[in-house]
Every structure is written in structure tokens, then in C-alpha cells.
Fold this protein.
Amino acid sequence: MQNLQITSKLREDFPILKREINGHSLAYLDNAATTQKPQSVIDALVCFYENHNSNVSRGVYTLAEEATEIFEDGRKKVAKFIGAESSSNIIFTRGTTESINLVASAWGEKNLIKGERIIVTEMEHHSNLVPWQLAAQASGAELVYWPLSLEHGSSCVGRLDLHKLDELLTNSVKLLAVTVASNVLGTVNPIAEIVKMAHDRGVLVLADAAQAVARMPIDVTEWNCDFLAFSGHKVYGPTGIGVLYAKQERLNEMSVFQGGGGMIRKVSRQASTWADAPQKFEAGTPPVAEVFGLSAALEYMKKYGMPEIQQHELQLTEHALKRMEEFPDLELYGPADIFERTGVISFNLKNVHPHDVAQVLDEYGIAVRAGHHCTQVLHEQLGIQASLRMSFGLYNEISEIDRLFSALAQVRRIFN
Amino acid sequence: MQNLQITSKLREDFPILKREINGHSLAYLDNAATTQKPQSVIDALVCFYENHNSNVSRGVYTLAEEATEIFEDGRKKVAKFIGAESSSNIIFTRGTTESINLVASAWGEKNLIKGERIIVTEMEHHSNLVPWQLAAQASGAELVYWPLSLEHGSSCVGRLDLHKLDELLTNSVKLLAVTVASNVLGTVNPIAEIVKMAHDRGVLVLADAAQAVARMPIDVTEWNCDFLAFSGHKVYGPTGIGVLYAKQERLNEMSVFQGGGGMIRKVSRQASTWADAPQKFEAGTPPVAEVFGLSAALEYMKKYGMPEIQQHELQLTEHALKRMEEFPDLELYGPADIFERTGVISFNLKNVHPHDVAQVLDEYGIAVRAGHHCTQVLHEQLGIQASLRMSFGLYNEISEIDRLFSALAQVRRIFN
Amino acid sequence: MTNPTIYRKLLLKHARHPKNSGRLKEPDLRATAYNPLCGDELELTLSMTGTVIEACKTQVRGCAICQASASMMSELIIKKTMTEVVQISSQFADSLQKETNDIPQDVECLRPLIALKAHRSRIKCMKLAWEALEDCAAQNQT
Amino acid sequence: MTNPTIYRKLLLKHARHPKNSGRLKEPDLRATAYNPLCGDELELTLSMTGTVIEACKTQVRGCAICQASASMMSELIIKKTMTEVVQISSQFADSLQKETNDIPQDVECLRPLIALKAHRSRIKCMKLAWEALEDCAAQNQT
Ligand SMILES: Cc1ncc(COP(=O)(O)O)c(C=O)c1O
Ligand SMILES: Cc1ncc(COP(=O)(O)O)c(C=O)c1O
């Protein structure tokens, strides 16, 4: 329980946690949607705008050099954080969604032809699904689903079965897009194994790490994935910034994404040539302040250590799963075993709509999400329209979970 | 000269202006690249992260409702600032570049066919050029240039001649992409007239307002343009946020841009249906903090008034143009008449490379830009490879311009 | 939230025991409405005598607020003309939009819903039934 | 910037009166380099005797730093083997990269350039000639 003690101190780093909501202190349990920001991240933004703000790459004056340094240093920090070979493998985007669209478009355009296949899983977020629908429509490729294994028992376990993947990996498959950790079920997928299986059949892998980077150690070199995407705002960093990691070979086989300033080598009247990666994929003025904020966020997590953050989250998860057992009318979606999951926990209270539950919880200052969490295919597969989701961050405490369960008992009283 | 007095007070609103560079106080004259931020914009970002940070649109709890309110209120403020009919005409993007790519892709895909034409001008920024090259290549449409009228005399005037446009507006033309104000020449183009001429021939108009929104009053309804694009970071707002205005009819005829969360209506396995505009074009978690910052920036400009800001800038411009006359070895690119231009002034000192000039100016704390300013076609047309650019913001003062010219005299001494 | 429970009682009554729930067998007008944010769905069926709504049923797959709103609406619109109910619908929408708390007489009975208007995220839930109603009205016009 | 003028004198001498400026008529090796940020261009021509650089000329369209770097490079590489100059090039690159100010003996004469390394935006200007040189070396290998 040692690192739970860390938490009570580090809560002071997050100004928003001092807020009162409807007379209660805020219990923010929607970290899968977005995370709160430590003072150091807010300070980084302020520091940038108060001292270094300038456009990057093109100026020879002091501010422009400082901004460029901050920006490129951010690239190095991200590369290091996820274990990438080099900072030139790091493309800055607006978020996970744009990162995946970039691959689906710039890689898909050149590498997908009619009749070929892309595999996605039934647990994908719309952002790792719709871009592939669009790429399939544009190229004539086919979208194939790696189905979930649902075992209804005391709880509904949603896992991906590697034997099923084996069957799906036929010759015509070009790419597999899979989440590292589900934003609903909490399930953690064995990416390294999946990549190995896929690569053995010549299939590329895009890993959606939106729900993973803040929750577990990441190592793209060890995982050997071809692409990896995540968002700054889900890793205690600012909005408006995301990352796409791509292997050098993949960068070489991609056409351009958006056109404009910064991504060109030479523009002539009818055609242009392109800068090298990563600049080739970063058209327009980049989000420099946001990169500085993201760097501060990664520093912040590093200070506590990803294994420690993960362990803390799993302790909270264990407690929450245990408290759930007191509610026979509560249906859990996702593994009940903390060794297969993160602290993202979705569930329903029988006979109460998740919207109504979340609304009552808000009256107690507790923030959880209700809805389909951008996973309609998964929800259809689970046979439900919507669910409730609590998801933990490094600042959450056991007592907040207890408050949630007391409030749930209250909800039951109101609606039954 | 009244509003120059305002300036000396409002400088205090900009923390970065207190910086010393190489022992001199910062004279920031690169506002065409990016603008500095007033305290109120920085405070807005801090306020968002310290009090309201949450993902938008999908949460029923208090923070999520506040964030959604901030986000949609920002849309209304932008609509009002540029005179748009409704906030549903406002799409939030990452910047001007992405806004233009959105149109070139989502409008171009559905509305451009082989043999049709797009007109761009020779003074366009790469961000309003390369996307059209890509759209032309994708559709088989042809890119046609509206040539500059260059009259070399005491200075090199770069204007767009409406008679030439008349000749170019043939039946096959579908769209004209033109900047409101040049980021090099400073030339202001008569958008309302251009739109009228184009519409008379059934040609749509995209106005690149990246260099206009901070410099003059904007009214999309009066101008009647079909699309208008600008960036937050060039209007005293944060990086990572941009705007695309589009008329309702145009929104109706556009296919999707990027796929993902937030832009869908219903996702099923092989295909999806889309949300209404503007959400249809905003895939992924939007830059909520940045929208709040942009709102604060627009408020800030409104406080002083756009006509007043414009007048102030023109006073500075007049002074700078006059001082230039002392330098017979200085070549000006763009109109010498302040009634045709903004405070973006490009020039060269004969026999000294712009890089070297900018480097020496930096030693005196003066920030100007050297290079091709993302306008290689224009620079080719001007017969030069690179130029120097000074560009004013609402906080600049006459004394900073005088410092620049003293330093230029110094440069001449060093290099000749 | 000012004393939400007093409203909740009435809302919950409607949500638990919705009036006019289900589907009319041979409706004159039918419309569905959908909330993409949560997947909630609603089906409205109406039978008409001339311009007057004779009978009305709603089939709801949604939250308590959505259910209650549909139930209250059904009570309110039966025996009224299409023109009248469209006006009521727009008064309801206005009341949800405006800053003040005064509520026009015609939609006074919707006060328990309108009282929740500060919860902007729930407006769509409240409006789902009314969207279906306006859809029916539009069909009736053409 | 620590007393930049002392360097500037030497740099400016090279920039104003560049050594080995122009193009060799019948070069054994030829390469161009381009700076997309400002459009600067440079052409390097070399004539070889075996592996030794016999003559070298650079045609520069660029700033003073780019010009000076090309001029200094030309003085440094003539009569050296390709292997030697590639090593010098990488020592130069290392010196621009590292935090400390000590400079290896072989590139001591490039000190006026290396002294400007804090100006990261100018590194590309300094390196343009050396990029062309490395291109020539690569051609020579194959
Ligand atoms: C006229 C013009 N258009 C487009 C752009 C691109 O803007 P951004 O880089 O913010 O996308 C700029 C600025 O760089 C510009 O000056
Ligand atoms: C698994 C997963 N993928 C992708 C996304 C999309 O991220 P963003 O909205 O930041 O682009 C999210 C979060 O919304 C997610 O949870």
C-alpha cells in the first residue's frame, strides 16, 4: 500500500482537485475520457507563453530558436518515454484520432488495394474503427473483425483470443489495428505477442495506446509494433496534442497527409517535393506550447515511475472490483482479474439507465461517464446500449471509490 | 496618434514583452508568424485546467457540462467575431492549414472532377497552395494561377488585377482560393469584389484570413465568401486551434474529413452515418482549452476595437515605409501605399543575405523573419530566394521601428 | 441544484409508470428519434382525427428523464391540434434555452423538466420525444 | 553571444572573398545541397587523384555563414584523402552537437563557425557545404 501514500501528497499537484461540486469535493473518476493536469503542466504552458512564444523552425532570432529547441526536445522526450529508436519516428498530431487517420490515409492510400484486408477488433474505439472504414471504402479493401470472447458468468469477460487471430491472419491481410487497453472493458491486450503473430504473416500492426500510456510502461521497440498512437490530454498533458510513432520503414512508404507550410522541400507551381519525416507529416504551425506541456506531463509521470503508477491503479481496481461484489444487481463488463486489466471499469446497475446513475453521482461530486464511450460495435456485442464507466488516475484514492459505492447504494434506493 | 498612446499601456498585458534579448528589450516584429499572448489568454488556459478541465459533449457531470459550455460558447464568440450567421458554420481545426486541407479534401473529393479548374494566386502561402495541388492531383482538376501584377519602380508593388481574374473565370472553374492579406507583400485583396465576380460565374471562394483576422474587421456575411480560414495563434490566441467558416450549402455538400469519436451518428460494422455539421468535421477530442484561450483573445481584440487596431497598425506601417526611404539600398516588396496594405512589410538590403541581417538584428533584441515565408512561388516571381519581413502587432511602438532602422544601418556597416 | 428531489418524485412517477407507453397498432403518423451520444431511441406513434391528435403512444429505450418527458408530453398533446402542440413544443424549447425561470402557462406542467435545464447535457434527453413530435408535424404538413 | 565580432571578422573575410569559389570545368565528383527553410543552394565540384582531393570549388547562393563555411571547408579538404575529410566532417558535426566547447585539433581552424553553434537555426547554413561533401564521398564509394 506504500504508493497509495504517495497519492495523498501528489493530489496537491492538481489544482482542480480542490474543487467542490454540489457541496462535495470532486471525485474525478473519468480519467479514461481525459486526465487532470498537474501544476507543472499548467506552468509549462504559462512559461512558454510568457517567455518563449514564437513560431518554430524558420526564425533565426532568439525566441524562435528557443521555441524550436523546446519543440524538438519534446520530440526526444516522447521518443524516450515510449522507447522509440529516434525522435524522427515521432510525429506530432492533434490527438490519437488524428494519428490514426494519418496512418489510414497516408499509409492506406499507398498500400491498400481492392480485395486486401484490414483487421480491427470488436473492442475498438470509434477512432480506431471509422478511419479504417473510410480507408476500406477508398481502396476497396475489406474490414474484418477480430471477435471478442465473451464469457458470461459472474461477470462478462471481454478478451481477444489469439487462436481466433491465427485464423484471421490470411494472405490478404495487410494491417491489424488493435487497442493496447480497452477504453471500456479495461482489458489489456498482449501487444508483443499479437505483433509477433502478425509479423510472422507479414501483417503490420497499429497499436492504439490512448488508454495505455498513462497506465503502464510502453516500449515500442520491445513490442515491435509498426505504429503507435496516443493523446496528450489522456496522459496528464494538454489538449490539442497527440503522437504518432511510426517505424522508419513505414515512414518511407507513406504518402503525404496534409499539405502546407513546414512539410515541403520545394514548392513549384504544379507540384511540390516533401521534407523528410517527421516534418513531412506536420503541415502548418505546430502546437508548440502543447508539446512543452506534454513534455512536462511525461516528466511528471516519470518522477513517480510507470510501474508504480500502474501498481497504484491496480490497487484501486482491486478495491473497486471487490466492492462491486456487494451489488448483485451490478453487471461488470470486462475481466474481473486485475492481471488482465487496467483501472477502467464499465458496468451497469440493473433497471437504472446509466445517464440517471451518473446524474445522481454528480450530485455527490462524483464524476463518472455514462454512454457508449465511442464503442458502439462493442456495446452492440455486449447487448447493451450504454454503460457506466469509472476510470482511475494516479491521484485517485480508495476513499473516492468508497464514496462512489455509497452513492450507488443511494441510486438504487431512488430508482427502485 | 491617439491610439498609439493606448499601446504603451496595453504592452503591460503581454508578459513576454518584458523579456531582455542579448541585453536589449525584446522588439517583437514577427507578428505575421505568430502573435504574443495577453495575460487574459494565458489566464483562460490556466482557469480551464484549474477549474473546468473535462472532455466535452458526452459527460453528464458538472465538469463535463462546464467544458461543453465553454466549448460551444467559443463557437458562438467566433461566429460573432467574423459575422457568421450561426455558430453551426464554425468548425474548429488545428489551424489555417488544417482548415484549408479540410476543404480541399472533404469538399474537393465530392465536387472536383477531371478537367475542372481551381484558381490560386501567386501570392498564396504554401498552406493555401499545396492542399490544392494535392486536390488537383487526386481529382484530375487543373490548378491555374491568378498572376501578380508587379510594377517595379521605386518599390515593387504586388497586386492582383481584377481584369485578369475576369479572363480566368471560365466555365470550368469551380473554386478560387485567395488570401485576404498577403503574409509577405502585406497587400490586402478586395475580397467582397472578388467574391462577387466569382459568384457571378458560379465559382466558389475560399478566403485565407490567417493574416487578416488580427489586422482588420472581418465580415463573412458581407464578403459572402464560401469558406474562410484562420489560426488562433496569429490572433493573440493559443497554438493548436484554428477555425474554418463554411456556408451552410457548402457544409451540406462536403463529405467527411477525418473519422473517429464525436463525428458519428451511428457506427455499425462496415459503415457509419455522420453527425450534423459542425461536429461531422471534428473527429476526436477537441482542443477545449485552446478554444477558451481563443475566445479570450477575441474578447481582448474587441475591447480595443478592430478599426482602432487596424489604424494603429497602419500608423506604424506609415512610419516604417517612410524610414525605408532613407535606405537607397533597400528593396521593398509590396505596395508603398498604406491604403492597400497591412503592417506586414518585406524587403531586402542589397548584397546582404536576409539571414545575416536577421542574425545581427537579434543581437539588438529585434525579432524579424528571414526566408521565403512559405511562399516559394511568390519569391520566384519576385526573382529572389529569400527576404526579410517585419510585421506589426497591436503592442508595437514607433520606437521599436526606429530601433530596427538604426540596427539596419549597423548591418550595412558590418557587411559592406 | 435547488432541491432536486421534489421534481424527482414526479419525474420518477412518470419514468416508472409512463403514460401512453407502447405503439399504436395503425398509427396515422410515426417518427423515431435517436440520441447519438448514448444510443437512446424513441418511437412516437399518433392517430389523428383531422388535425387533432386522437391518441398517442411512445416506445422509449432511454433514461428516466427521456422516459418522463415522453410520458408528460403524451398527456399534454392528446386532444390538441397539431398547430397547438407545435407551439407548445417551441415554448418548451424556449423555456429550456432562456436564462430566466418564468415558464409560460401552456408548458407549466413541464416545470419538473424545465427545472433541470441547467444540466445542458440532459436537454437532448428531454427533447427526444419532442423531436419525434416535430417530425410527425412535418409529415402531417406535406 | 560572447563577443561575436572577433569571429565575425574572419567569417566575413571568407564570406566576402570566398576561397575556391565557382565550378570546376570537368569535375570527378559533383553534388548540390539545398536548405528548404530559406531556399539557399550550394554546388560542390571536386577533382580527384586516386582517393586524394586534388581541387575543389563551391558555388554558393546563400548567407555569409554558409559562404564562409564553404570557403573554409575548401581550404581544409584540398590534398586530403576522402577518408580523412569524411572524418573531419564528422568531427565538425560532433563539435556542433556537443555541449562543451573543446574542439578537436583537426577542426580547430573551423572554430569561428563552431563558436556560433548556440544559434541552432544557423547549423544548417554551416553544414550545407559539408552535406555536399558527404554526398561526393558517398558517390566515390559506390
Ligand atoms: C496567409 C497565410 N495562410 C496560411 C498560414 C498557415 O497558418 P498555420 O501555420 O497557422 O496553419 C499562414 C501562416 O503561417 C499565413 O500567413
Ligand atoms: C482507446 C481509445 N482510442 C482512441 C481515442 C481517441 O482519442 P482522442 O479523442 O484524444 O483523439 C480514445 C479516447 O477518446 C480511446 O480511449
In short: The first helix of chain C runs from residue 4 to 16. The mean pLDDT of chain C is 90.
